[in-house]
Amino acid sequence: SERDKLSATLSSSRYKAKIQDQTIFNHVGQLGWEHNFDEQWASALSAGLNYSQTSVTVPLLIPTVFQGRLIFVDPNTGAIFPEQRFEELENSGFGAVYNASIKKAFERGSATLMATQNQSASSSGLQTQTKIALDTAYIIDDRWHTGFSASYSSFEITGQQNNLNNRTTFSFSPNVSWKWTAEINLLLSYTYLQQEFDRGGQPSNGNTVQLTFLYQPQINHQVK
What we know:
By secondary structure, the protein is mainly beta.
């Protein structure tokens, strides 16, 4: 309708890792609703389910060198085998995915607050990412624009609270752009990123300064 939009999304992905010959199939189904309260306020909400199937090939025997020859030992019985034996493990499960946002438009800019949760395949299993983000934009004049974004994210391997890859990240990034000519724009941005793993250790920090030169030739102008 004039103020509302409905959407349905279906997607599938396949991830294959060389480590442990791991294969992950990921299927996501979502329903979404977008509503415009007025010319200044707008909101969007989508939610659904994620279904994953994981297949991992695990070695059963411990490789050992005995009298210059490689043998494989069963850790449970101590039996010796000339070749490695493998077992294929399979599991599946459901997870929740969602995306919610609210946007406020101003005379010279806008601000958007978002909260999302999605799942993706990784070499350690299915990874759940939960994120809260704020994006702002402000128009100083016809040639100068500025903006600011900040986000907080958590990454967790589903069902593995002590996994080494479980972590949280925080970042913020201010930027300013200048329209030099009708065809040339310059964008200067700074990004700070901090990442901390749940298993402890010193957090890692990153600082990035980026200058972008954008040239868009106006080749489609016609002389009347």
